[in-house]
Amino acid sequence: MVSAIPGQSATRTLRELMHPLIEWDKAVEVAAAHMLPMPRESLVVSLALAQQHGDLHPGNILLANNHPVLIDSDAEIKASRALDAVTALLSPLFNRHSPLRDDAWPQVPQCRLVGTSGFLDGCPCPGWIDVAQSWFLSTVSSPREQWGLVFGFALRQLKYPDVQDRPVLVDRAKALAAAAFDILSD
User: Fold this and answer.
1) CA distances to 97, 151, 179 from 162, in Å
2) In contact, 97 and 57? CB cutoff 8 Å
3) Per-residue model confidence as pLDDT tens digits over 159-169
């Protein structure tokens, strides 16, 4: 199990939780363009705040002498302590530098299984995804935080032209957003 980053307990609205990933007005625009429903922006979310890299994806992790080095820290922010973890978990599915981007995994139905062992079924690099998922689960304070971050991350991906050009990526992002909406609207 990955140990959690300590953080300061807080409550934020869903809008505030998602802000480091995507501004609310842009999220509404992207969701409408893809016919995705939006949860209430005022939904209250329990979380822990901690300093985060803010843009953790495969292109910002280099290996130097077999040690990972984070680069491009200009997006550093105090946010949900799970922000970097959700990005580490999901960015390999979308980032142009990732070999998983065009992989058949995860299938659209598996996107509902983020946070479970079923999400790893058929994963071509289970070591990374399992550790990232464990990190993510150890840093979220509530299901609302977990799925609010997944929702924001998915909508963020749908705004990028290099994602919009690939139907498999659009379907994957929409499936993540739909799964998150279902949890957030309960």
Assistant:
1) 12, 19, 23
2) yes
3) 999 999 999 99
